[in-house]
Amino acid sequence: MQKLSAMSIILLSICTKRLLQPCSALAPVHRVRPMRCVSSTLLCLSSASSGRVSNAVKDSELLKKTDGASSQQPKEKLDTNPPKGTRDFFPEDMRLRTWLFDHWRAVAKTYGFVEYDAPVLESESLFTRKAGEEVTQQLYNFVDKGDRNVALRPEMTPSLARMVMSKKGSLPMPLKWFSIPQCWRYERMTRGRRREHFQWNCDIWGVSDERAEAELLSAMVTFFENVGLTSEDVGIKVNSRLVIGEVLSELGIPEEKFAATCVLIDKLEKIPIDAIQDDLEQLGLDQSVVEKLLQVLTNASIDELRKTLGDDSKAVQQLSNFLDICGGYDILDWIVFDASVVRGLAYYTGMVFESFDRKGELRAIAGGGRYDKLLETFGGDPTPAVGFGFGDAVIVELLKERNLLPSFESPDVDTVIFAMTSNLYNEAVKTASILRRAGQSVDVVLEDKKAKWVFKHADRLGAKYCVVVGQSEYENGEVSIKDLTTGSQQTIKLDNLVKWGSEHK
Known about the structure:
The protein is an alpha+beta fold. It contains 22 helices and 17 strands. The chain has helices at residues 6-19, 23-30, 34-43, 55-58, 62-66, 68-71, 91-110, 134-137, 157-166, 211-226, 242-250, 258-267, 277-282, 287-297, 302-309, 314-329, 374-377, 392-401, 425-437, 451-461, 471-475, 497-503; strands spanning 114-115, 121-123, 140-143, 149-152, 175-179, 182-184, 196-205, 234-240, 335-337, 351-357, 366-370, 385-391, 415-419, 442-444, 465-469, 478-483, 489-493. 30% of the residues are buried.
């Protein structure tokens, strides 16, 4: 059977296209007789017995495919917005984020915490507890290609518990770890609340009393002070879940209903009691129990709480001891006792706390508490633990409102270097390398540009100096350096450039 050559197929494509054009238009361009081209090519394909018909001949869309102009179809315009509730981080946003993270890391290091991390994707079962927490209803969860139920982490503490448990008791205690994870929750967005956020987590494991809580809150206060906030701007509400536990025990409510009750009580800050009345009744909490709880939660001081619970109350003793230690840290002016604070996570067992904007315009800045039984819920050994989570969104809103953020418009570049002529570009690169080794941040102008453009570019970058590599200076083994702050200019020998660079960074 005769097969078509590649050239025959190309000729077929051309001649078929020419059939649809006027002959008068074809002859001047190609200087061939159109009918001869068509007949000679089609002749070899006219009979099935003479050879197999090419797919190109069969394809009725051939002309559209070979004609670039006619094949262009309208394209759907790309949506340039990130998914709802998420953020892009342009360079200036990254500079702000880095600034914030650097402050967090500096405080953590000051207090002896060490950094860790974990996968953003975890097994769904790590987060699906059964106490009615909002977080379990806000998971970004799905079944992966291996038929496994997984979720983007909504918080870091369960991942930390999994990591500690994986070491089977081999980690030396006490443990002081911190992390800055990105967390994901599908929730209603408000000011300072997104569906993804970064969060500074600090946790202490292996310490069973209030000294751990006081250490954590001191670290939190240190951060606030480092970024310019005072106790007039921010307060930290504290309470103990032992308060609710003692009331429920006195009223005969079984211990297994403790966590679920705390989750419901935490909702009262956002919704009226009527909205959760049915849930309370399902737990066996009738109106009298709820009224007693609300009466206790309105206590405004430790002394009032002592009158309600008695001098032997473990909750009162715990809170009193904690406040005494805070006095040693000199942070009492930041601390506010608030019996209504219980926090919304079921695993908290003791003291709970949250920092807040004293003007009341923003949601909670940070929060945390003690979770001594968390490891047990995963089948591990009981281990005392306490920690906090400190989100990036609300604190940035607060710092903006108080006008405490530095400018992030320009990158932190020390020097811009450019060659006056293209033949000196290699010398400019060598000069840049010298200054970079000296510790400077250096931007090299990568194109042939005029001096006016270079100085505008340096201004946009916020550079402090501009180094000019010119012909006469190069011949003398020198470079010209302009101070962009003062406008002064000097010439420096290349041999002295390392010393200059190390002194001007």
